[in-house]
Design a protein that fits this description.
Elements lengths: L2 H24 L72 H11 L2 H4 L1 H15 L4 H23 L5 H5 L1 H22 L2 H25 L6 H13 L1 H27 L4 H9 L4 H32 L5 H15 L5 H11 L13
Helix pairs in contact: 1-8, 4-14, 5-7, 5-14, 7-8, 8-9, 8-10, 10-11, 11-12, 12-13
Length: 363
């Protein structure tokens, strides 16, 4: 990796502590007013009262449906910790795409550097299968595959090099950060449904907009310190409203997606599905959703054929190490490299375990 690329990753990552990464923490811990500082990012602020977290509204909420059996920690650092996040269901048993799902996934992925991604995903799936039933379990499998692909793509995005001006000029730094955050927003919308984007990242994106507003204020030479502080307080006062707007948008998106799922599951004519979606989304989004549905149907057929080949391979009585290598080669034959994370997730779900009720993911 070149020096500018390393600098961008470090610089963007450092700013992201204020603009993105810390947003997840500050979503629970709103900052109180502080005097403007002569820096390019707002300093960490003291908390006000802790607000309630926005959650998807449904006719009825169910907590995780089972308490998993005690098992050894994935890595030593997890020995005295509880599984983070929460998996909430609506009255129909659908998984609610809210921040707790992302926290749950991140809890297990935090062990990937030490235990390996395969072990982290396998442990996550073993735990999830004890907590969820269908259709929520299959919905979790699908969003996990999307999340893994998104994480990989976001790493590539943040590795783009900085220009010389972006390294040295505060205004160019702010412009680069705005562009980077917008690119990250776009990337999320390429990988997730509208409901998942709102649930996983709505609060974070709202706080990022606030942070960029504060950074822009600090570069204003036409404002006094007192004026800057007043305007910063006004930006901060808008944060609760932004959370409420995010929740409202998520509720609407969830209702529309539920209707769209019902139409697609009943094999309704694509023209009727398109007409319904066109009432709620821009044409570009409608086409993307229909294309995703076609791709998912094609994926399901391809994956089932792959599993049939895998079953024949395992029945051949090969040594375990040879079988692992043969399975990897089979994945490479049937799927593109971009699909390997998804295949691994589905295989972790489908491969035989000690649980007698394991089932395959629904389409």
């Amino acid at each position: 990796m070149s020096t500018p690329t390393v600098q961008r990753a470090l610089w963007f990552g450092g700013l992201a502590v204020a603009a993105i990464t810390v947003a997840g923490m500050l979503y629970w811990q709103w900052p109180e007013a502080s005097k403007p500082l002569a820096v390019h990012t707002p300093a960490p602020l003291a908390p006000l009262d802790k607000p309630s977290a926005p959650q998807a509204i449904a006719p009825e909420r169910k907590q995780m449906t089972a308490t998993p059996a005690q098992q050894g920690p994935l890595v030593a650092g997890m020995a005295d910790t509880e599984v983070d996040g929460e998996l909430l269901l609506d009255a129909n048993g659908n998984l609610q795409m809210q921040l707790g799902v992302r926290d749950y996934i991140d809890y297990f992925l935090s062990a990937a550097d030490e235990a390996g991604i395969d072990a982290a995903v396998a442990a996550m799936m073993a735990d999830a299968k004890q907590r969820l039933q269908e259709p929520a379990l299959s919905q979790f499998v699908n969003v996990l595959g999307d999340y893994l692909a998104y994480k990989e793509a976001s790493i590539a995005l943040l590795s783009q090099p900085l220009t010389a001006a972006q390294q040295n000029n505060p205004q160019d730094q702010l412009g680069a950060l705005k562009q980077g955050l917008q690119a990250l927003d776009n990337l999320r919308r390429e990988h997730f449904s509208p409901a998942a984007v709102e649930g996983f990242f709505g609060a974070e994106e709202a706080y990022s907009r606030y942070t960029l507003g504060v950074m822009a204020l600090q570069q204003r030479e036409d404002l006094s310190d007192a004026d800057k502080q007043l305007r910063e307080e006004a930006l901060r006062a808008a944060l609760p409203a932004a959370m409420q707007a995010s929740q409202s948008k998520q509720m609407q998106a969830l209702a529309v997606e539920e209707q769209a799922r019902s139409l697609m599951a009943s094999k309704t004519d694509e023209g009727q599905v398109r007409a319904f979606l066109s009432q709620h989304y821009e044409p570009k989004v409608v086409e993307a959703m229909l294309q995703e549905q076609r791709a998912e149907q094609a994926w399901d057929g391809q994956y089932q054929q792959y599993r049939q080949e895998l079953a024949r391979l395992r029945a051949a009585g090969m040594a375990e190490q040879d079988q692992v290598q043969a399975q990897q080669k089979l994945r490479q034959q049937w799927f593109s490299e971009e699909q390997w994370h998804k295949v691994e997730t589905y295989d972790a779900f489908n491969d035989p375990t000690d649980e007698p009720d394991a089932s395959s993911p629904a389409s």
